[in-house]
Write a structure and sequence with these properties.
Strand content: under 5%
Number of strands: 0
Radius of gyration: 22 Å
Number of helices: 10
Helix content: 55-70%
Order of helices and strands: HHHHHHHHHH
CATH superfamily of the largest domain: lambda repressor-like DNA-binding domains
Shape: elongated
Oligomer: single chain
């Protein structure tokens, strides 16, 4: 990934984290850096970085952007040719990657506020991996999702019945159960 793409991606993540449901603009980024870090960077300089007109940052700018986005300064360079992020094996880095993926998903589903909020809440949790593993266990336990919904979100159960969505869910479960019995 090129430096400009990373800055654009970080603006997108920052916009989601700040609850904007859109990317943070270059002008908003420049203003936020001035307000929060008491340092200046111009929107035109950010534009040059993102467009590739300025392929390298000064050390001062790299440190400023790294501090604002809360990333390691070494992230703010072009990746070497052939570099693949999925080769990262450090657990902490994987947890951060998972959280970024969840925030990215929240941004993609911003038109569904409930789903977007759930993904952001999961990304902000100290151990989002454990939360996803728990969700997997809940989904593997028959009828537990419906029971939890009845307790935690009764309005969702009633809305599902009115729209007929509950019937489709139960039909899928019956079909899946029949398929599992036929395999054994």
């Amino acid at each position: 990934m090129k430096l400009g793409e990373k800055i654009r991606y970080l603006r997108s993540v920052e916009g989601a984290v700040r609850g904007l449901n859109r990317d943070l603009t270059q002008a908003e980024l420049a203003r936020a850096i001035t307000e929060e870090l008491k340092k200046n960077i111009s929107q035109s300089y950010l534009s040059q970085i993102e467009s590739g007109a300025r392929p390298h940052l000064t050390n001062t700018t790299r440190m400023l952007l790294a501090k604002f986005f809360k990333v390691h300064p070494g992230y703010l360079v072009d990746d070497p040719e052939g570099y693949h992020t999925e080769l990262i094996s450090d657990f902490g880095a994987l947890e951060n990657k998972l959280d970024l993926w969840l925030v990215s998903g929240a941004e993609r589903f911003r038109r569904d506020p409930e789903l977007s909020h759930a993904l952001l809440t999961l990304a902000k949790h100290d151990d989002s991996r454990k939360c996803l593993a728990l969700l997997g266990a809940i989904l593997e336990t028959p009828q537990l999702v419906d029971r939890l919904l009845q307790v935690l979100k009764p309005e969702a159960v009633h809305a599902g019945r009115r729209s007929g969505n509950g019937n489709a869910h139960h039909a899928r479960n019956r079909n899946r159960g029949a398929a599992e019995r036929s395999l054994s």
